[in-house]
């Protein structure tokens, strides 16, 4: 038994956290008082302390969405104390997507959505398929627009070279492989 120096109640030894610096090896405050003391100190510094929510066994609370979900909706993480990721699968995917846009293109998801809206929701090149993929200049890293998968892949296959794209357009239009009539009966083959 030990007496808490804050609330003055006499409680069992398990109600106190360990502290090797103390003579008896236990904190001066009971766990409840220590939690309240910590909360008051943090609030005095202008910080917010998360309220501890009771969670049933086999479940975990996501700090982003605040929902309590079963372990089946979490990724494994061997380095964490409980063996599960910090965020649920849905929130983790959302955070990873946001970080991807910021890291690769320097834009947020809201900025990408604004670009899509400004384009009318369709691909800038084909104007048929929905715009879903961010297109950027590989040399400067500057974002050019949002394209459909096929158009974005085509630009990548052409290695962003305008001369190759012009030849491809001429080829598709039939200007490169159609012979041209020079005089009556005389055709010039494309070179």
UniProtKB/TrEMBL annotation:
InterPro entries: Endonuclease_7 (IPR004211), Endonuclease_7_sf (IPR038563), His-Me_finger_sf (IPR044925). Keywords: Endonuclease, Hydrolase, Nuclease. The keyword Ribosomal protein does not apply. SUPFAM superfamilies: His-Me finger endonucleases. This is Endonuclease VII domain-containing protein. One of its GO terms (molecular function) is endonuclease activity.
